[in-house]
Amino acid sequence: MRVAQRLSPKVLLIDPVRTLPSLLLPLVGVLFVGGFSARSYAFAATGVIAAVVFSVVKWATFTYEIVGDRLETKRSLISRSIRTIPLERIRGVDVSTPPMHRLLGLAVVKIDTGASGDEEEAKLAGVTLEEAERLKAVLLRHTAAPVPGGVQAQAHEPAPPAERTIISVPRKWLLYGPLSGAYLLTPFAFAGGVVGLAFQWGDELGFGRDAAWSVGQWLWEHPYLLLAVAVLLVLAMPFAGGLMYAVFNWDFRLKRRDGYLVAERGLVNRRSVSLEFQRVRGYEIVDGLAERWAGVVRVWAIVTGLGDSETRGQLLPDVPRDVAFQVTGDAIGPYRGDLREHPPVARQRRLFRAIAPWAVAALASAAGVWFTGAMIWWILLVLTALLAVAGVPLGLDRYASLGHGYDGRRLSVRSGSLRRAQAVVERRAVVGWRLRQTWFQRRAGVLTLIAGAGAGKGGYSAVDVSMDQAVGFAGEVTPEWLAPFLDRNR
After folding, report:
1. Nearest Cα to Cα of residue 104 among 8, 193, 194, 173
2. Whole-number Å distance between alpha carbons of 399 and 464
3. Quick one: which of 267, 316, 315 has its CA closest to 98?
4. Number of independent structural domains in the chain
5. How do residues 282-330 score in pLDDT, each as one tens digit?
């Protein structure tokens, strides 16, 4: 007998609280406009009661159940909406525990099929921890990887472990967080949010939008105070960025469980992401300048049919480079080849692109100094000249980062400097090749070779290679595709 399941009733303690922030501005407006009278309090109470009633109705009209080989979610009030998800189409099941859910012993289950882009296909926003683990096991069991080669284990052989921890990132490695730069702008984002709230809610909070504007004008008229605030925000960048990084990547663990790679992380919101191993086609190793100097990298998985790959596909936060290559080799497979250099003209292009814009700006600033002699032009001249000089090592580093290679099973391409990325993709993931050549590349005699892949970003580029390198590389990876054309040219 089929029994439809509902979310835990405890979710009724969460949904109204989550709804209140969207009602805060109208409620504050009602109280101020009404002069904090009994009538204004009645209107505010009505809004809160309406939020509670809406949450109860939403909970009562939503059910889910697993029927045979599919998951069904239903929502019915005036009309009925039924969403059916075949279990064989499920690509991942993510379990997270936001703060309020954790206090109540609940979890959020997100089901991804890869068919809805960056959004999950279904979301169960409040089930017990036991139910979350049960659902995860049931839903993923239907897509677990089979035994390689179809050979079953012998009776006398011990059964493989159901779960194996590949790496547990030490907490001391969280100190690498500010090097990634992803969270360094946190103080400026916070300051911008405060300023925005001051202008939007100034009238409702009692000090008026004009007062906020006057404070801004006063700070503009005292540039030294504004400079001091900017310096404080800059000094706070590594501390605030490191704190946010630690919160999101606390106790990071990568495991292999029943045909899945499972990444668990988070302090406030603990999140568990499962990636079906059968659909992993490679990985991408990323580092910036500061990370490269410190010898650390970040790693993302290249997976077919994965929505929101920038967050769901993360395999490792900032870890030492040697550890990253060891973990990716153990979890997915190593790349054993060398990267080949690109032609010298690629170096010239990178130097030109790194120096020329700032050199032109420096010439324009010099013209401004010649005609006006204003101090602002002197400052711009010095800054642009320094940036033009800094473009030399930057261009050389960008050229040194270029490379492509093939080890007989996986191909690899690398490019970038401020953000250098090396993609390692399995041969079976390559679905086609594309040659792209801009007007400037035609003049230089180079082109960009893009390996089309049915996973990850959909394509990975070897930038500024010669025609011989492009044809030779594509012919080496997929000789059966190019052989008819090469024979015809002969």
Report:
1. 8
2. 10
3. 267
4. 3
5. 999 999 998 999 999 999 999 887 655 666 788 999 999 999 999 999 8
| Terminal Cα distance for the chain, rounded | 70
At a CB cut-off of 8 Å and minimum separation 6, what does 382 contact?
none
The span from the CA of 411 to the CA of 450, in Å, is: 12
Are the beta carbons of 408 and 334 closer than 8 angstroms? no
**Which residue, among 112, 460, 413, has the nearest Cα to 279 in the 3D structure?**
112
The alpha helices in 372-478, defined as continuous H runs, are: 375-401, 439-444, 467-477
Helices (H), 78-162: 99-103, 129-141
- How many Cβ atoms from other residues are within 10 Å of residue 127's Cβ? 24
* Residues 386, 358: Cα–Cα separation, whole Å: 9
pTM above 0.85, yes or no: no
Q: Is 247 exposed, middle or buried (0-12, 13-18, 19+ CB in 10 A)?
A: middle
Neighbours of 332 (CB within 10 A): 21
The verdict on 180 and 283 lying in the same domain is yes
Q: Which of 51-65, 196-210, 317-331 has the least mean pLDDT?
A: 196-210
Query: Residue 274, Cβ neighbours under 10 Å: how many?
Result: 26
Residue 263 is assigned to a structural domain of this protein: no
Residues 215 and 321 placed together within one structural domain of the fold: yes
Evaluate whether 318 touches 296 at the Cβ level (below 8 Å). Answer: yes
Residue 67 burial by Cβ neighbours in a 10 Å radius (0-12, 13-18, 19+): exposed
Place of tokens 């809160």: 48
Cα separation of 126 and 112, whole Å?
17
CA dist 384 and 91 (Å) reads 49
Domain extent, residue 320, equals 171-257+276-334
Judgement on whether residues 40 and 19 belong to the same structural domain of the protein: yes
The DSSP bridge pattern shows strands 403-406 and 296-303 to be unpaired
Q: How much of the chain is helix, strand and coil, in % rounded to 5? A: 50, 25, 20
CA atoms within 13 A on the CB side of 227: 4
Reported as a pLDDT band with limits 50, 70 and 90, residue 228 is: confident
Instruction: Tell which residue, 299, 323, 318, has the closest CA to residue 167.
Output: 323
277 Cβ contact list (under 8 Å, min separation 6) = 145, 256, 259, 260, 261
